[in-house]
Amino acid sequence: MKVPLSSPWLTEMERQKVLQTLGASRLSLGPTVAEFERCVRRYVGAKYAVAVNSGTSGLHLVVRALGLGEGDEVITTPFSFIASANCLLFERVKPVFVDIDPQTLCLDPEKVEAAITKKTKAILGVDVFGHPADWPFLRRIARRHGLMLIEDSCEALGSELNNRKCGTFGDAAAFAFYPNKQITTGEGGMIVTNRWRVAELCRSMANQGRRVKNGAWLEHVRLGYNYRMSEINAALGVAQMCRIGEILKKRRQVAEWYNRLLGDVNGIEIPYVARRITLSWFVYVIRLADRYARQDRDRVLAGLRSKGVECSNYFQPIHLQPFYRREFGYRRGDFPVCETVSDRTVALPFHARMKRHDVESVVRNMKRVI
Questions:
Q1: Alpha carbons 147 and 352: distance in angstroms, whole number
Q2: Tens digits of per-residue pLDDT, 89-118?
Q3: Diameter of the chain measured on Cα atoms
Q4: Whole-angstrom Cα distance, residue 91 to residue 101?
Q5: DSSP β-ladder status, 73-76 and 120-126
Q6: What is the pLDDT of residues 165-176, one digit of tens each?
Q7: CB-based contact 73:328 (threshold 8 Å)
Q8: H helices within 78-134, ranges in order?
Q9: What is the C-alpha separation between 122 and 119, in angstroms, rounded?
Q10: What letters, b where the CB count within 10 A reaches 16 and e where it falls short, cover 74-112?
Q11: How far is 370 from 360, CA to CA, in rounded Å?
Q12: Using CA atoms, how far apart are residues 341 and 48, in angstroms rounded to an integer?
């Protein structure tokens, strides 16, 4: 029997909320989306929230709302899901990569200032695997140089730094609700910000550029997109937000089982969690010891899969993706910490529905394979 890499945790509450929405007269631009926005806004502690159809869409709208465009540069990380860099290219903004911290795997703030030029307009940090970036450090750099600060918190709903939730440190942030995230809407995302103008622009652009209030349906006052979240997706999100404490607690328990069972295994490094951090676990990614090469890691992945354990190599460096190599001429060696980490990562099965015997089975197979 296969052990899946991820799986959403849905209950009768989610089913009933979705069925209730299906029985209503509106499936788009209705009250359930607004309810979901309120749930996330209040949970995070932001003034405004705008629901969209994906985290990628949310990041794109934030880039546009902040006025970034052709000729601008934004400092960001090469170790992330590719959307954190692609959202800049959508607006012809150049992503300027900076290497990562070898423990947190987030953007290394010590290396950011050396990458700032006259064209730099913002820093886009990523809460990698749910671990908060060093937002206070990045914010000090941004203020010192007059830069905007964007949070890609797509993997970090519920994570905290110094008792402050991710999504509240910068000019705007985006969350994502793909089925492997802490909560899911099937597909979906959320923009949060304390800046009214940013929220209004994002809300308008997500709805084909219509006015937010008092506009005619066929009047479009700016370039926009169909990035709306449906009422059905929002209904799923509302129910999941009602259960987020329970969900995060269960994910934390699964991570603790892994930590105890893998903590003393020779050749494996368990995930690092910095002080002052409350981690909302998105995935469980181990690293093989320094003595292992990428080929060894790939053999471990193949061995686990042969035993029915789904796994993956989170993340492949963005700068070494074929498109980025062709477009920008990146090559191996440009960001050595990112590359060394990426060569040795193994994402193990992780979700709130896992039982202890599931974790024990994965660990048992991991020990055999390694």
A1: 38
A2: 999 999 999 999 999 999 999 999 999 999
A3: 65
A4: 28
A5: parallel
A6: 999 999 999 999
A7: no
A8: 83-89
A9: 9
A10: bbbbbbbbebbbbbbbebebebbbbbbbeebbbbbbeeb
A11: 15
A12: 36
